[in-house]
Design brief:
Elements: H1 3-20, H2 26-32, E1 33-41, E2 44-47, H3 53-64, E3 67-76, E4 82-91, E5 95-105, E6 111-121
Length: about 120
Amino acid sequence: MKILDITKLYNTFQNDVGNFLDASIDQNIITLFSESFKKTANGAPLVARRSDLKEQLFTIRQQAGKWIIDVKEILEFTDPHRCLNRYHLKSANIGTFDVVAMVRMNSIGLIEEIDEVYYQIPQS
């Protein structure tokens, strides 16, 4: 799988989690993420391995409420295993964020690492 394809699947997964989070996300996590998956947000570690991801998503979903992902751009790098993923996360409880994420996949096409930076968009 190519990095742009897996990133599009990741965006769909995030949108699905925001709309109807339930226990059935386990299979999607296994399909998209490597066992050694790591995730950071604004420089802080959020997930140290794939098995931590579900709990992190449930926690943020409770805080943020429902959300939608509005993809702005996905840009390829010369490295075929990395790309930039920019989107707006619009949440019910904590507002809207412009998110810039570096996505890296491993050699077998699973997401290995996501490094996100969140910028809150002021409410008008």
